[in-house]
Amino acid sequence: MSKFKHRTIPEVFLGLGFNEIYDVWSFGCLLSELYTGQLLFFGDERTNSEESQLDVMQTVLRRSIPYYMYERAFDSE
């Protein structure tokens, strides 16, 4: 998975699993990359952690990860 971390849905980073939404998310990222020639969510190689990847996603999308996702992630622990 680390090879394609820049196309991974936030749910996977939060431990919420994945379904067909993963395919749609990945396809959207791929289309953006083909159109622009650049990775959509590209983090720093030195800080290539799941937390830093979530930060990059929030910065690019200009939105925070929904609170209910954090609640579900921490409730399942």
UniProtKB/TrEMBL annotation:
Check the record and name the SUPFAM superfamilies matching this protein. Protein kinase-like (PK-like) (SSF56112)
What domain of life does the UniProt record list for this protein's source? Answer: Eukaryota
Q: Which UniProt keywords apply?
A: ATP-binding, Kinase, Nucleotide-binding, Serine/threonine-protein kinase, Transferase
Q: Which family does it belong to?
A: Belongs to the protein kinase superfamily. CMGC Ser/Thr protein kinase family. Lammer subfamily.
This entry carries the following GO cellular component terms, namely:
nucleus
Task: Spell out the PANTHER family in the cross-references.
Answer: PROTEIN KINASE DOMAIN-CONTAINING PROTEIN, SERINE/THREONINE-PROTEIN KINASE DOA-RELATED
Keyword Transport set for record: no
Domain (Protein kinase): give its ranges.
Answer: 1-77
**The protein's name in its UniProt record:** Protein kinase domain-containing protein
GO MF annotation, one: ATP binding
Q: Which organism is it from?
A: Caenorhabditis angaria
Single GO BP term: regulation of RNA splicing
